[in-house]
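Repro case for the chain-ordering regression, as requested:
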Amino acid sequence: MDYVIEMLDIRKEFPGIVANNNINLQVKKGEIHALLGENGAGKSTLMNVLFGIYQPERGQIRVQGQDVNITSPNIANDLGIGMVHQHFMLVDTFTVTENIVLGSEPKKGLKVDIAEAEKEVQRISDQYGLKVDPKALVRDISVGMQQRVEILKMLYRKADILILDEPTAVLTPQEIDELISIMKSLVEEGKSIILITHKLNEIMAVADRCTVIRRGEGIGTVNVNETSTNELASMMVGREVSFKTEKQPAAPKDVVLDIKNLVAKDNRDVDMVRGLDLQVKQGEIVGIAGVDGNGQSELVEAITGLRPSEDGEILLNNQSITNMKPRKIYEHGVAHIPQDRHKYGLVLDYSIGENMVLQTYYQPPFTTYGRLNFNEIYNYAERIIEEYDVRTPNSLTMARSLSGGNQQKAIIGREVDRSPDLLIAAQPTRGLDVGAIEFIHKKLIEERDKGRAVLLVSFELDEVMNLSDRIAVIYEGKIVANVEPDETDDQELGLLMAGSQRQKVGEPQ
Amino acid sequence: MILQKLKGTWIPLVAIGFGLLAGAIIMLLFGYNPIQGYIALWNGAFENPYFTGETIRLMTPYILSGLAVAFAFRSGLLNIGVEGQVFVGWLAAVWVGTAFSLPAFIHLPLAILAAAVAGGLWGFVPGYLKAKYQVHEVIITIMMNYIALYSTNAIIRNVLTDQGERTDYIAESASLKSAWLTELMEFSNIHFGIILAIFSALFYWYFIEKTKYGFELKAVGFNRDASKYAGMSVKRSIIMSMVISGGFAGLAGAMEGLGTFGYMSLQNSFTNIGFDGIAIALLGGNTAIGVILASGLFGVLKNGALNMPTSAGVPHELVDIITALIIFFVAASYMIILFREQIISMYHKLKHKLSNISSKEGK
Ligand SMILES: Nc1ncnc2c1ncn2[C@@H]1O[C@H](COP(=O)(O)OP(=O)(O)OP(=O)(O)O)[C@@H](O)[C@H]1O
Ligand SMILES: [Mg+2]
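-- result from build under test --
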């Protein structure tokens, strides 16, 4: 059998940790090969080795049957390997085309020939049905589009072997469907794809084979049509995983969050939240279901003080917190797991310990008389790391060098541990493995049972259905329906999210 | 990330080596003996107490201006206005030093404080404009440099003197000099400012690394969105950072006004203390100890170079080129680290091509 990529017996160490050991990965031409493993198992590291960002301590890499020594991404490019990183690497203020040609610009004399480049980008975009506008600024396009730009970047460089590191984690369900058909058309054109994802049903849907790694060790490779999601899950975690979290019926009490007629604008000054009403009570989880871009982000940012409320009122425990400063709102008992962990959630150049006190650093015992108590800070951080199973050598490690999922677990730990009256969780399980998702769901339910109010925002209907005691459907900046999860189904929710009125059960509209 | 990469401390040392080598080549090309040249440089910096005193005297304001630039940089701001802040600090110190007669233990601290406050105010303006209206600090600070230059001149001419060229000498009680120290260092211009500069560096380190304010400033420097999310006041941090940065710069001005000169005269151009501060902060990796070491390098080069024309016959212009080369190499070495990846890959490509060629020839 001919393999386009062979990685044999790879070992890669970081100070204090063996990220890869004894891993074999063999990719056939024209296949979609999934790479599966827990958060911090070493998937991104392995791909960074293949892409020449890291040098392995041991092992051999063959490309098209030739032994190679990939010492830099440029060499990987020359060998036809392209990679889309877990966290995108685009320049916000550049256009799509400028981002794509960056580093290999077509020249006309000494000048960059942008017109020529735009034509080429358009051509490739048409060829694979990517529908990208070459002239748009990257900061103006959606995350899904940005991802296509990253894919185009690889294709522009004539890559035949495409590495996609958790491409679907940041996408909405619609965008995921589109990405899947893009991937299929890519392999039809003879490209090979290595796909990292935590979503087992995606693997079942597109992958031909799947290689599993656990805690840095290679476990094995299976044919996808001979396996099941349950088998994959237990291969990767090493135990049975349950996909549906058990919970008692909710016992809601007093209203904690009461939003009346809220109006908020987005960055372009367009009304995104348009007279929204919402209540969340003690001891219940309210899930916001909606298609991305219907005001979810603006709603969360208005509650947490990151965005001004233009009109209406936000009450927390009957006290107005409308347009208060974020710190005041935290002090009133709100915690917030942000949607974008790199933009808001972490200071990547701070240690993970410092990040654990990002909101509370100024309070005793972390600060006394203006002086930081690093002992207290790091002891506290170690406790969260322990409790939330954040896999890192210790709390002095830079947040930047944690795996994406472990960064997310650390943020969740920080927010939940403050034990707030109101916990706002925006896409809390983005990028987490199935075991970690199970754990986080349990934690959220535990918080609920302690009498906290939980507001969950998620694009994944499964998560909303599974976790919520009540589902509030958001459409064009308003809550258009409140439904109970056991009285509805995906289809009805889908219709409501698309703006149609509710008729089947419950109160007639 | 850049800060991370700048941490390697061996690089500046290797770079200084390369710089010296390049300087030697230049000297050889122009027919001078590089060994003699460098001995002259070394002697000019350290040969006797007088030279050593002068070296320390030169490095004192550099420490403070370097700290000023570094402080702003830590919170993500580029303070190009140190030059102007030095001027207003210098003027304020001299003003207080000439206007009052007080006991020394009040007069000197008061004059120093005045300099810090004046520099801080000069930093406040761009800080405020940046925080409130998102005006870029580089533009404002550059403009403020000119305002400082011309308005200090106007004040010296019209307020502190009657169309004079320079102010009166400051009172003895406001001076950083002491007869004892001057005598010890064989009548060099050294003064007690160096102690203040070292204490400022200590303060810088403590503030940035150990206090909650430093925690905020650095967080704002690394990631403004996350700082805002975390409930920090980004605006307050920006203003505070520029004010304290300007305060350090004002102190650098006090070194000139209360130490080296004891007066302020009309300036027809910038002193370069502030601009050199940018290089010093960069060389020092924006850390307190790094800034002290880099200031030392600047002090040695600038002072030692004065001795090269007389002792080794190397002309002034060449000396300037050599000192610039050494600094250039140190700065360039950081660039080399930043672009290491590209350089390595270029090297490998080259090797690849060469081996292709040789294997083809072999066939
Ligand atoms: N640059 C680095 N320096 C130190 N440790 C690192 C670095 N990069 C990764 N690690 C560590 O190596 C391990 C593997 O990380 P990696 O990013 O490969 O995980 P992953 O499988 O991609 O996880 P996730 O699903 O969460 O993205 C982790 O424990 C991580 O902390
Ligand atoms: Mg990863």
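Ordering looks correct now. The pocket of magnesium ion (ligand 2) is lined by residues A 43-44, 86, 165, 403-404 (CB under 6 Å).
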